[in-house]
Backbone:
């Protein structure tokens, strides 16, 4: 029942926003709907905690420690993004970049996107997981091209086509998974349910599962933006409106990775070897290194942070590939803190770009003097992303690095190199933007500060003090992936 | 007896589907491509119905009807309307190197047979040998999306890939569970809506549907 209201609210709000249109209080309805979904997700999390494990709502949905953590994260970030978007989109509107119809479309699609992500997280069925991943992509394609500039249309087209090609591979992988499952569980809808598959994973045919994983990896890896399947990501994440960039980078990438680690758990059960893990480690490390070096030569501020998302997805993928309790714990924590820090940084970046009327980093200067909240928000967000202590990303990266030293010491130097280059790139690019004198032509702006600092405080808290119940929670989530 | 005949009919249909995938690769006229796509959908619907009849899996009839409605009637109709509205029905795409593309396509077919060999050995379904054709159709669709530069052609490649995926599901497991098939059809419908909008956006912004012009977003040093 609670599960249904979790999904129902966002689709209902999407319909309301689509039919009522660009009404004066549409941004507030958008915030209210997201907030309500967030509250419901907290209730659901409490329920999971009390019932100690998992709730399966019929054959279609199920909730356990792992996916409820991501559900709470998704609803929280979508709420703060809705708060940010209210002020941000108002400015965009004053600048004449969006009109009546596009605002209506924007709000409806925002809620539809949340709906699709929530289904992907709580569904029990691997087929439905694929469908909702594709739905989430389709809901955001036209948001990326919202400004209708030639570059925005190009970015959205690339996003549509390349993700379409990628996700098709994942569907073929799902067909193969069904083929393997059918031989154990019999035909029909039950053979694609996670709750059944995880029980019988050791009986699934290893040859088929190996082939299936290759296709699933390519498919969901494209959506998670892993190198060399990442071509669409910097464009799509930089050309859309900033709230969309924040949720694409902060949330959608996580969902794709979530799909991948579920598949990995099954393949590991079937093969009993490190096959899937090794592939993921390779993709992860390649993504980390490529993205870190690409960051050095970016000129557009949103592209810089899009590459940073590839980098962090690479780290998390590497961690899950490495496996073992510490690395997996680090991976789950990394997904959560990255999501919070990245969306917070995008909020500041959006305001900074509005103040200067451009996304070119060489024109953005003197942020701390011009608007202390935006300047400090961006600086602290970037420090968190770069892995400085005491922020939570430092903790997760430290855990992952420790596990690497223990289980795969020869890869530790590469991991360190990637982290160091990414740190240098971020610091070198961001320092001149926040420090220094205010350039002429910088426009004053009332920024939405609450979302940024709320996220940063959470990232800080997760870094310095992980409460006992939360640590226990993550440990139980990690158990599921064994 | 009927079983062997059905298997043979199905193999014949699979061969024709593969042929249509190659025809898509070679065709340069936009309207010609839409027609071939519709034929491919028809072959797919027929094949699904034949498998459904021979295997006794009656839910395949529904899938077959769904395919007929979506891929033979609705999608080609939408494309036909769009192409006429955009006044590009006489367009002939300048495709370079058709022979090379065909050669690459043949390599992909061989590769598909090689990749699906272990599954053929495991399966005891009458359709096991057509899984390779299905994978080949997916790969050829992908090849089409990569080598062509026209927005409509790229979308047709995308749809041909989807045909391949559907065929793969019927070949490997007599179709996916109904909820999944319906969901995929829904996604496809939304995708059709989106590319329809896109064609107009691209056409008005770039004054043609040649996506070659969209090359602003590149990594610059």
Residues:
């Amino acid at each position: 029942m609670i599960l249904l209201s979790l999904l129902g609210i966002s689709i209902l709000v999407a319909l309301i926003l689509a039919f009522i249109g660009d009404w004066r209080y549409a941004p507030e309805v958008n915030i209210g709907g997201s907030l309500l979904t967030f509250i419901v997700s907290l209730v659901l999390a409490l329920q999971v905690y009390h019932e100690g494990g998992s709730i399966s709502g019929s054959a279609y949905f199920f909730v356990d420690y792992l996916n409820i953590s991501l559900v709470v994260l998704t609803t929280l970030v979508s709420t703060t993004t809705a708060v940010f978007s209210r002020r941000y989109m108002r400015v965009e509107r004053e600048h004449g970049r969006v009109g009546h119809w596009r605002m209506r479309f924007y709000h409806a699609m925002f809620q539809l996107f949340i709906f699709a992500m929530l289904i992907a997280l709580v569904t029990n069925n691997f087929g439905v997981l694929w469908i909702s991943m594709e739905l989430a992509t389709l809901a955001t394609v036209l948001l990326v091209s919202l400004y209708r500039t030639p570059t925005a249309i190009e970015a959205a087209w690339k996003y549509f086509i390349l993700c379409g090609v990628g996700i098709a591979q994942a569907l073929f992988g799902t067909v193969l998974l069904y083929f393997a499952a059918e031989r154990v569980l019999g035909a029909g809808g039950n053979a694609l349910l996670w709750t059944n598959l995880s029980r019988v994973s050791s009986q699934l045919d290893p040859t088929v599962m190996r082939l299936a994983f290759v296709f699933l990896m390519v498919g969901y890896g494209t959506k998670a933006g892993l190198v060399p399947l990442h071509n669409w990501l910097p464009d799509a994440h930089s050309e859309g409106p900033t709230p969309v960039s924040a949720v694409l980078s902060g949330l959608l990438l996580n969902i794709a990775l979530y799909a991948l680690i579920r598949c990995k758990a099954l393949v590991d059960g079937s093969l009993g070897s490190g096959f899937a893990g090794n592939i993921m480690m390779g993709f992860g490390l390649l993504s980390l290194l490529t993205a870190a070096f690409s960051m050095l030569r970016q000129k557009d501020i949103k592209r810089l942070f899009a590459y940073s998302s590839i980098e962090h997805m690479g780290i998390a993928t590497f961690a899950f590939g490495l496996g073992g309790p510490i690395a997996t714990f680090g991976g789950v924590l990394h997904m959560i803190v990255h999501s919070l820090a990245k969306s917070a940084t995008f909020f500041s970046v959006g305001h900074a770009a509005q103040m200067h009327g451009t996304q070119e980093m060489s024109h953005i200067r003197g942020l701390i003097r011009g608007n202390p909240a935006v300047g400090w928000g961006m600086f602290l967000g970037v420090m968190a992303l770069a892995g400085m202590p005491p922020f939570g990303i430092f903790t997760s990266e430290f855990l992952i690095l420790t596990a690497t030293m223990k289980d795969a010491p020869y890869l530790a130097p590469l991991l360190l190199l990637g982290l160091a280059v990414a740190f240098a790139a971020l610091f070198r690019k961001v320092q001149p933007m926040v420090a220094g004198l205010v350039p002429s032509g910088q426009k004053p702006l009332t920024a939405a500060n609450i979302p940024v600092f709320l996220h940063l405080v959470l990232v800080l808290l997760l870094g310095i003090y992980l409460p006992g119940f939360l640590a226990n929670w993550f440990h139980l989530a990690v158990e599921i992936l064994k | 007896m009927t079983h062997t005949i059905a298997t043979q009919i199905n193999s014949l249909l699979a061969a024709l589907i593969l042929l249509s995938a190659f025809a898509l690769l070679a065709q340069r006229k936009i309207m010609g491509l839409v027609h071939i796509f519709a034929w491919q959908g028809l072959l797919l619907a027929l094949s699904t119905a034949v498998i459904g009849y021979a295997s006794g899996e009656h839910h395949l009839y529904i899938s077959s009807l769904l395919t007929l409605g979506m891929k033979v009637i609705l999608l080609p109709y939408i494309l036909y309307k769009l192409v006429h509205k955009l006044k590009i029905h006489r367009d002939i795409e300048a495709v370079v190197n058709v022979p090379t593309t065909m050669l690459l396509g043949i390599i992909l077919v061989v590769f598909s047979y090689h990749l699906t060999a272990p599954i053929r050995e495991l399966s005891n379904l009458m359709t096991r040998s057509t899984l390779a054709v299905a994978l080949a159709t997916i790969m050829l669709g992908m090849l089409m999306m990569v080598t062509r530069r026209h927005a409509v052609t790229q979308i047709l490649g995308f749809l041909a890939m989807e045909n391949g995926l559907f065929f793969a599901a019927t070949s490997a497991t007599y179709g996916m569970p109904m909820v999944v098939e319906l969901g995929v059809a829904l996604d496809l419908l939304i995708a059709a809506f989106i590319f329809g909008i896109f064609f107009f956006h691209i056409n008005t912004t770039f004054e043609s549907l040649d996506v070659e012009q969209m090359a602003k977003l590149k990594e610059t040093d």
Remarks:
- The helical segments of chain B are 2-26, 30-55, 59-85, 98-122, 131-147, 151-173, 178-206.
- Chain B touches chain A through 47 residues (CB under 8 Å).
- Residues 2-213 of chain B form one domain.
- Residues 75 and 192 of chain B are 7 Å apart (CA to CA).
